[in-house]
Records
---
Amino acid sequence: MSADYESTLILSTADGTLITMAARESSPARPGDPDDGPALRADARRNRARILAAAEEVFSERGASASTEEVASRAGVAIGTVFRHFPTKNDLLRAIMKDLLRRLTEEVVSLGADGDPATALFAFFTRMVEQAAAKKAVVDLLAGAGTDLQVAEPVQALRQGVDGLLARARRAGAVREDVRITEVMALLTSTCQGALQAGWDTDLQRRALTIIFDGLRPPAAR
């Protein structure tokens, strides 16, 4: 039995991403993939979510020096619980990226349904760049293990949702009428790649996005 893995990012998202931003690969199904076999019990799902949240924090803070033991301690679970869900560190890293892509997909759908048409596209663009910069440590670790991660594929996976946000923004007069989805995706992909590779700090993210957003908006809305 085999499973598809999305390794990112941003982004994003991959054990079975990222998202962020990552390459797609085919690999044997692993016990750490929650989609393989019967659904996880509620307590197992909670443990898995805690482990992923803790791992994001630990790897972002400590980079390559982070250990699985630190992740278990931060999550408040036994090391054996971590290994039951994620047999290797790379399984855990790929799962972080897959989870990121899942969250970003849910976010773009939610913004398309309920977000403010005038601001939703810019909010999602900002979120993608933030996540790309934040996941640099995770992506570097995966790259060191031989997984070549690229931003383009996970970003393009969100194209339909972004296109919906763009259409609503144009109708609201928040984006120039001549802006097309191809240009938005080119900007989003290249900006996420830059944030990922260089680990942009919040100030650089803000300044770069201000310039990009001013280019997308009609003169009266800048």
---
Amino acid sequence: MRHLRIALAVAVLAGGFSLLGLAAPGCAYACSCVQPQPIAAYANEPDTLILKGTVTVYDETSHRGQLHVERWFQGSSDVADIPIQGGDGADCGLTLTSGQTLVMVAFENEGVLAPNICSPWGDLATAEGQALEAETVAAYGEGVPVPASGDTVVPTDDGFAFPMIVPIAGAAIVLIIGVIALASFVSGRRGT
């Protein structure tokens, strides 16, 4: 009986630490990148898109929205309205708002436009954004206008990302149950 009590005490202690781990916040990562190069330095990079467009719809919770492309300076698409992924700066993503018109260097990731703060971008409502637009036109010309398109659709992120602590805590619970079962089995064999 003494061994069972010890095993149960260990199990309760391990369970307490597991629950404490669930309450602890996860790691926070900050964006780390070098200063963007002048926009002309991105010429002829095959995976680099340079464009001007307006954010027509944006969901601040999922950081996803729709960008209406007005001009392509490098790269192109027949579709004027394309999904865009923003962010909060700490994840290197741009903080976007509906109605914002931007000139930017961006990359395509699984059909979604992914600009970031590590590449040149500018909000045309600011003097810096207007200067970047002038620099872009000087380097790439007037760009290619995009024909008007149909309906806009807000992309959704139906996935659920959960912290790594959840599967670790689940494994710890399974381990605790295994220890209790083993302790009960050993205790039962000694009693007979």
---
Amino acid sequence: MGKDVACGPRHDVPVVPAVPSVRPLGRADFASARSELQRAWGSVYIARKGELVDASTLDGFVAMIDDVDVGLLTVLHDGLEYEVVSISAAIEGSGVGQALMSRAIHDARTRKCRRVWLITTNNNIRAIAFYQRFGMDLCAFYREGVSASRRVKPSIPLRDGSGVPIAHELEFELLLMPDTAHSSG
């Protein structure tokens, strides 16, 4: 006893990053969802395939770390189709996107949807790899598709931050089959 104990970080103990938890998007999340969509996409409106969707009115999921909202995923589901309209993470590389996407795929299976699909652009290389890690396949290529989306959302830039032209839309899908190997839930 009597010895002073240092209160700084200990370098001999590995830091375990917090695992994101995911909950359904609720009415109480309206303002924070709008704010996250604005931060991530410059608007609550998402343009794809020449159509404009108000993502702030959609169902979805919120990811949290230590009770702080750190990610948002919005979806449109209609019968057998389950579209991921937007996905964003305030902290990249921390498992937020993975947690959100896993929850969305689980939700689509629960709803007995035939497929999960989404649209991204040709310049979004990191997202393309992310979707492929989830088993999603490129199923459609819309040459100059961003032109149609720019007509309904003119704020879409011509080039991304690294100078790559934003020109084409790519559709990815995950076909869902009955998951008998994981039926215990």
---
Amino acid sequence: MRFLIIFIFLMFNSFAVGAVDIKNLVINKETKKYDGLTFLDAKSNQLNLKDYKGSLVLLNFWATWCAPCKEEMPSLDLLQINQNLNNLKIFPINIGQDNLENSLKFYDDLNIKNLDVYFDSPITLAKKFGLRGIPTSIIFNKEGLEFARIIGSIDFEDEKFVDWLSKYN
């Protein structure tokens, strides 16, 4: 049992480079490149992540039935208008098979004002990223490379997180 605990500890820590003490944040050892990262906006227009090179991008995967998603969404909404992150573009992508009406009601119930609704209808991104649960947020640098993930919920207004993320702005 001791060896299993040590193994898990070593495996988890092998993913973190320049580790910071932020709950649920995993910093990639090496950046990851993906091709063909597309998702849909509220009008079913297809967006391509490559069109946002030059910006810091956060993809947040959520669903209306997800309690931790509901908990973190208001702080994600405020992160979008944070003055220290003026180059950050947030795409909250609903992967819960919810329609636009349900998604907008979710936003309205939580008083979400600064974020638009996006969808991954065929769940291609969820599969491509190997998501194991939601909420999960994937962070891309200005070159369009994944450099970190947030697995589980987080307070996006946490000062340590905002300070860390602003270094990549």
